[in-house]
Amino acid sequence: MKIAVIGCTHAGTAAVTNMARLYPEADITVYEKNDNISFLSCGIALHVGGVVEHAEQLFYSNPDQLAQLGIQTHMRHEVLAVDTAAKTMEIRNLATGERFRDAYDKLVITTGSWPIIPQMEGIGLENIQLCKNYNHAQAIIEKAKHAETVTVVGAGYIGIELAEAFQMLGKKVILIDNTDRILFKYLDRAFTDPIEKLLADKEIRLALGQSVQAFKGEGGKVQCVVTTAGEYETDMVVLCIGFRPNTELLKGQIDMLPNGAILVDEYMRTSNPDVLAAGDSCAIRYNPTEQPLYIPLATNAVRMGTLAAHNLVQPAIPYRGTQGTSGIKIYDLNIASTGLTEQGALAAGMNVKTITIIDHDKPEFMPHYENVMLKLVYEEEGGRIVGAQVLSRADMTQSINTLSVCIQNRMTTRQLAFVDFFFQPHYNKPWNLLNQAGLQAMEQERKERDGKVLAQ
Ligand SMILES: Cc1cc2nc3c(=O)[nH]c(=O)nc-3n(C[C@H](O)[C@H](O)[C@H](O)COP(=O)(O)OP(=O)(O)OC[C@H]3O[C@@H](n4cnc5c(N)ncnc54)[C@H](O)[C@@H]3O)c2cc1C
């Protein structure tokens, strides 16, 4: 069996390392257009901020390791075209310019994503940087050395992490977003308000609710960002406004969402039986709405890559989908979320209720305890949990992983109220916060029911 894999970062590395183990007789060939594999972009902000000193620490594999597993890895080779009917590919060696063809029995697409680059005046100016791969990280670090003011466009996870890193490096930082709140996809306003306050206290200038319209500069270098609300002088810009799936190669040959994300079934099979796909190039089943959605995360990429390997020959292990669970640490605040926010659920047309708990992480008789805010979003009818958020100076982020499991298993608030969680004063209270959230949701339901009865 000849297996070809296009792209080798997280989904690709997970796919090939598992395939080498599962199909020792197979001929596995990887084409990767970059000069490195397995770079952990999640470490870029930590590297920029100097927390991770050496970029080499952000790789967990390399072509030599893959070669030892019997995988033929062609670095700096770009796949230019795929013919899924003939099962062939056209490839260019980027070092020599040579073009050649190769054939496959099974193809795994792990071409990932690329940052969205808005087409507008001045976009080609120097010092407007992307933030995706190792080379971008090095360029950002180098350019930042000469920048006094850095503007980050996009206040999602990546933008916020970079804003913090630049501020800690002593830069003046401007953070621009066209929505009126930071992190709006992940958190509701009660959670973003204290984070925005913290950023403002650190003198990060928040320019929210305004869209970038152009970049201006002299001598080819960016000097000013023009938005719908004003102009900001800057020495450098980092664009963090999202990602697009890298799937032009397969357009018209396999089914995709309108944004180009490949549609795969639970076994990572595309609409072509001999083509599987995984990672940022794909849409994925989003459990809160039970619809395919584009959620580019390394966590999904490694799981999907592994599953593509297991399901390559025949369906073996299904993917249970995702809640888009994610976490972030901003200065001393620990934040995590899973599933839908209240705002997101309402926008999706769902009928939801919420419970927000503000409590301490440990009993008050302990010498140290911290405030915790936890919010649960659940369907009004039946109480199915569809989302949760947590924020605390204590690390309560694992509670969101627990709630991710609850969402995946379609648990209700009533079930959550009585889940068996341990109690130990060093860690929590006798009624675990998650039990409390379930209990309060039940109480809210009872009061509303009684209210309705009285009103009749
Ligand atoms: C700054 C930053 C921080 C992040 N932080 C987190 C985090 O904390 N947690 C989290 O879960 N996720 C995080 N992510 C997201 C995560 O990095 C991505 O989800 C992950 O990289 C996806 O892996 P992938 O292998 O599917 O795709 P990609 O990483 O996009 O890799 C695709 C590979 O395919 C290659 N390729 C593409 N086209 C071709 C072609 N035609 N021929 C040959 N090769 C090709 C590319 O060169 C690339 O190496 C972060 C992303 C960024 C940018």
UniProtKB/TrEMBL annotation:
Q: Which GO terms describe its molecular function?
A: oxidoreductase activity
User: Does the keyword Transmembrane helix belong to this entry?
Assistant: no
Query: Which cofactors go with this protein?
Result: FAD
Q: Which UniProt keywords apply?
A: FAD, Flavoprotein, Oxidoreductase, Redox-active center
The UniProt transmembrane annotation reads none
Q: Which residues form the Pyridine nucleotide-disulphide oxidoreductase dimerisation domain?
A: 328-428
Matching InterPro entries, A to Z? FAD-bd_OxRdtase, FAD/NAD-bd_sf, FAD/NAD-binding_dom, FAD/NAD-linked_Rdtase_dimer_sf, Pyr_nucl-diS_OxRdtase_dimer
Q: Which Pfam families match?
A: Pyr_redox_2, Pyr_redox_dim
What's the name of the protein? NADH oxidase
Q: Which organism is it from?
A: Paenibacillus beijingensis
